[in-house]
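Morning!

This is the sequence you dropped in the shared folder:
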Amino acid sequence: MAENDENENLLGNKKVTIIKKLNLEGKDIISLRNLTGATRKPALILLVLFIVISLIQVNRDLFIRENIFASSAQPLIEVTYGGVKQNLSGESLESLKQYILMNVAPEDFAGVKSNLEVTDVLREKGRDAAYFNGSVLDHACPMTIRSSTKKLVRKPPDVIGIGFAKCGTGSLDFLDCHPSITFRTSEPKFFAEKTAVQFINDALEKFDMDKESQKRGFRIEIKKYVDEYLERMPLATSDEILIEKSPQYSGGGSNEVRLERAKAMKAINPNIKLIGIACDPVKRAYSQLNMKVVFWGTIEEAFERFTDKQQSNFDAGLPMGFADYANQIKPFVDIVGAENFHLVDGENLVQNPNYEWGKLLDFLEVEKDHFKFYKDEEKGFPCLDKPIKHCLNTAKGTSRKTDVRKEYANFTNIWDGLYKPTVLEMINFFKICDKIDEICCEKLSDENSSFSWIHRYACTDI
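The structure's back. Tokens below.
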């Protein structure tokens, strides 16, 4: 954050946006500066700063910045690239944007968000510091799909994805491609921070939230932490649905901790909606185990150690975490209400994506016809076909390419038995079936239906 703090000193409240990451080799610098007068000096200082850095750090990656901000007058932008200067009027910003799109490799940035008042070229994914003062918006969608005349604002998220890890939460990044949604792709993890959550909940106890005057006092009391949270959010228009996700919110800690997190979420946005993604716990456990092989020796040794530990926890009556969906979600549902919580089937996001995404978009109350998926046979995972063609990071879902039940049946058969009781609790809690009977099992036998993977846990004796 020190680098961004320096930018604030140089530019005050002016917008600074990371365009791309380049290997400049001390040669080419793109500078974009407003020539209306007020920002000439700060922009010049910034340009000189980058020239110095480029000379010192030859062959190092540099971040190239632009200074484009709302003005009553049409700004004149000077573009310097490879020693060639070109002046662009405010009316030519679209041309500038197209130039960047054509000359920057797609993997170097996430996309472009257009606004008549502000044009932001989005940062390379993965740098949380780029949220500094909202100057850079975090987007997963790799091209322009938004165009709005409305002002970008800072606001709390309307929807939060709370888990579960290893169930495909990364696929929620596709939401960023919906024209009615702005999505924070990297995880802010704000409600996983004890200090902030505790402070907000202490304030809830201090003020009577049934009284309007007390509500105002509460807002003032928690303003510091609310502002900190909002600074982690991308800017959005007032009518866009803003979404963030952090699987840590449902995982880790006790149910008392989860209840405190849920209260803090609702305190910041009383109308908050929550999303969870559940999947076959055996596949989820294998995905986690795969990460431990490097510490646990061979894959067989890892399976043996993991299975022994799971069996020990089961015998001790401890929650079977990889299948403990109902227990971990209950505190959140108790606070926000069942009508404001939606459980997505992570397995069906792969098997029948258009159906599963349609249900999620209905819950979000946005147009679902904007989304259409196809199965990428090479990757084995769905890719977006509409509104643009877009696939997720190829590193995602690598463990899912292994048929773990076939390859390691002697272990996974044990896991099935260990996870069965908590999976049955899930059926009742989320009302997947009214009761576990022949009608329920017939429904779950349809591989295209949501939570069909539950069939092997619930219907072996029916």
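Headline: The radius of gyration is 25 Å.

More detail when I'm at my desk.
O.
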